[in-house]
Specification:
Elements: E1 4-9, E2 13-14, H1 28-40, E3 46-51, E4 54-59, H2 61-69, E5 74-79, H3 84-96, H4 104-116, H5 121-128, H6 132-139, H7 146-154, H8 159-165, H9 170-173, H10 177-182, H11 185-207, H12 222-231, H13 235-241, H14 247-258, H15 263-271, H16 282-303
Parallel strand pairs: 2-4, 3-5
Antiparallel strand pairs: 1-5, 3-4
Helix pairs in contact: 1-2, 8-11, 11-16
Length: 304
């Protein structure tokens, strides 16, 4: 059944289940919308879907609330049958053109839900007309600390600053939250980038000697690790290649092999022209370095 254009009573129109862009009634834009509807009526029909006792707004909640203040009673609507996923995709697409006005963390959660439900990143990119790179940046907002979520959703932290903050491991974000609120985005991004690079350099330079410049960790598939645990097929070769003489040397060689930064893995990756793992985000790398650093620190404390 196709779309239908009808006039529906305002009292039978209900807010969307998912509210990605809050209605800020005190804003100049909303006041202008109310005045425009009062003078000229609703120029763009609302998109709705049938629900119990009426219709649910899919796109047009700002117009619905403005129409109520403008004392309108009949609202032009396009009625379309759709399921929750179809409605969510429409809402994501409609708000993708002004993500800074949405609740960005909530937006990221809804993107992740679609991916968790089985949609691929490429398919989602096509459906909402945004690049995969943009989607990855938005999805990183899921990594924000709890105390950063509300300021981001309220708009106290600009979207560009929120994206920069999300590139840091959660345990490093705390001291940057206040600066994200008060600093200009371009200045804040520069500060976060420097902090992240300093952190990675400190950890990789001081705590992990096998990590060569330009060679990034890439965790081996779990199937390979399980196979090695059951048969120890690579153990002898790895131990010999790293010249292990103590249990601690063996432990370090094991970590290097698991992360593909042992001499043989580095050699193979260079042959293929791949010195960097394109599938690991900066957050994942930083978290990985942190875990490595803690492991080596604990080892050193035990040795001493």
């Amino acid at each position: 059944m196709g779309d239908k254009l009808v006039f529906l009573p305002l009292e039978k129109l209900y807010p969307p289940k998912v509210m990605l862009r809050p209605v800020r009634r005190s804003s100049v834009e909303f006041t202008e919308l109310v005045n425009s509807i009062r003078t000229d009526g609703i120029l763009q029909s609302l998109l709705v879907r049938p629900c119990e006792d009426g219709h649910e707004i899919v796109e047009g909640e700002h117009r619905r609330q403005a129409a109520k203040l403008a004392d309108k009673t009949l609202i032009p609507c396009i009625v379309r049958d759709m399921d929750d996923q179809e409605a969510l995709i429409i809402q994501l697409k409609a708000n993708a053109v002004r993500p800074q006005e949405t609740q960005p963390y909530e937006y990221a959660r809804r993107l992740k839900k679609l991916l968790d439900d089985g949609m691929t990143l490429a398919s989602l990119s096509n459906k909402i007309d945004k690049s995969p790179d943009w989607l990855r940046k938005m999805l990183r907002l899921i990594n924000l600390r709890d105390e950063a979520i509300e300021p981001v959703n309220r708009g106290d932290i600009p979207l560009k600053s929120a994206m920069a903050l999300s590139t840091l491991p959660t345990y490093l974000q705390e001291k940057f939250v206040d600066d994200a609120v008060i600093m200009k985005p371009q200045c804040f991004v520069m500060r976060v980038n420097k902090a992240r690079l300093d952190y990675e350099a400190q950890v990789t330079g001081q705590k992990y000697t096998n990590l060569k410049k330009g060679v990034w960790p890439s965790i081996r598939p779990l199937a390979d690790l399980k196979e090695e645990l059951e048969g120890f097929k690579q153990a002898q070769a790895v131990i010999e290649a790293n010249g292990c003489k103590t249990p601690l040397d063996g432990w370090k060689a094991c970590l290097a092999w698991m992360l593909r930064v042992d001499p043989e893995s580095i050699k193979q990756r260079k042959k293929k022209g791949k010195s960097r793992n394109a599938y690991m985000t900066s957050v994942e790398r930083a978290d990985l370095y942190h875990r490595l650093a803690l492991a080596v620190i604990l080892e050193n404390e035990n040795v001493e």
